[in-house]
Amino acid sequence: MADPYVPMPDDWQRALAVVAHPDDLEYGPACAVAAWTTAGREVAYLLVTRGQAGIDSAPPEEAGRIREAEQIKAAAAVGVHDVTFLDYTDGVVEYGLPLRRDIAAAIRRHRPDILITLNYHERWRSGDWNSPDHRNVGIAALDAATDAGNRWIFPDLLEQGLEPWAGMRYVAVGGSPYSGHAVDVTGTLDAGVAALDAHREYLTSLGVGHPMGDARDFLEKKTQRFGERFGGVPAIAFEVVRV
């Protein structure tokens, strides 16, 4: 029997979520985001791409427009109204200094207490292989969390008026196979379902019968499964990385 999850730390007020694609947060973490915004905490989103390669039947520019609009609607459903896109090319995001710099700049701009990102490990809990975009963005976010506090890393950011920010306590990683913490989402499951359902055109493109096509069924099963290790309440799990 796996160890029970412990509650996520709650000694924070501002969060910045950094993920690769529109919809990455909506497969579970957005339910927790809704719980946090409902409690009065501030959350902003930073999307590295616009999901341009996500719809096989739509050219990248059209797909990007569709998925950007869906992401903004999804964020609003969980109380997030600050959504920024970096315009990296979907599917070929590379780990490197430009990505670290852009995320560090966003951290300095938002000055969050915590960072939220998606699974950066090679595999998901299921054992399935994780995509390079997720891995590269997750690792870059972890590195940028410390880059943002050092004035001698990316000193050009100082010229933009972006002073170092070393006030982050930890990074919360959604979808990680090494999760040990969880958030009770009893009261915000409906908001999470609305957020995932906001990606309707994208979800439809996945085809009939895809497990994520039914937003409510998908999230109810996921939160119940996590809840088995969290007092029996619907929950979303995170890996917590101290920075």
Automatic annotation (TrEMBL):
Superkingdom as given in the UniProt entry: Bacteria
InterPro entries linked: GlcNAc_PI_deacetylase-related, LmbE-like_dom_sf
Record's keyword terms, sorted: Zinc
Keyword Metal-binding attributed: no
Keyword Oxidoreductase: no
Protein name, UniProt field: PIG-L family deacetylase
